[in-house]
Specification:
Strand order of the largest sheet: 1-3-2
Number of helices: 6
Distance between the termini: 56 Å
Radius of gyration: 27 Å
Order of helices and strands: HEHHEEHHH
Number of strands: 3
Shape: extended
Structural class: mainly alpha
Largest sheet: 3 strands, antiparallel
Length: 180
């Protein structure tokens, strides 16, 4: 006599459950050892797919640069000023950064808005770095060089989705492998 499919599956599931239960109880005999993670460092890349304006996160803080920023972004600054509690981008509310390489910036200073207090704390403790103003360009490029095609440039430069793919795979959209 043959077993029905339902009977077969019920028997197979019961046998698998019994074997798994025995194995789980057997695991209790083993000691667990945690890896030594002292000195561990990780590179964490957060890719926002174009959903983050870095010029609204890492802000100029020295007075001259801040004034220029506020002038260029007048509409945005007015929007922030109209929010309940006032502008989180007002200079007096920003959290200045003290990078170890401050001398490389020719007197320019930078700050984070108060919403980024956890990142500010990580940065100040030396546990976080900020890498800004990055992109897939191979070399600096101006309009004349672009038109003359005299400087190498990434493929499909003005295609947003292709540039995201270039970031992830070093190739335009459709690449099968990459570093991210």
């Amino acid at each position: 006599m043959y077993a029905s499919r339902r009977q077969f599956l019920r028997g197979a599931a019961g046998g698998a459950l019994g074997a798994a239960t025995g194995f789980a109880f057997d695991l209790a005999r083993f000691n667990a050892y945690a890896a030594d993670t002292s000195g561990y460092k990780a590179l964490v890349c957060v890719f926002f797919f174009g959903g983050m304006d870095s010029h609204d996160v890492l802000l100029p803080y020295d007075q001259a640069s801040y004034n220029q920023y506020a002038d260029i972004r007048q509409d945005l600054m007015q929007d922030y000023a109209g929010q309940p509690g006032g502008s989180s981008r007002a200079r007096e509310r920003l959290m200045p950064l003290a990078p170890s390489n401050a001398s490389d910036f020719a007197g320019r200073e930078f700050a984070l808005p108060e919403q980024y207090a956890p990142i500010h704390a990580l940065f100040e403790s030396g546990d976080c770095s900020i890498v800004s103003n990055v992109g897939p360009l191979v070399a600096p490029l101006n309009r004349e060089q672009f038109r003359a095609r005299s400087v190498p440039r990434p493929p499909r430069l003005f295609s947003h989705n292709d540039q995201q793919s270039v970031w992830m795979a070093s190739q335009p959209e459709g690449a099968r492998f990459g570093f991210l």
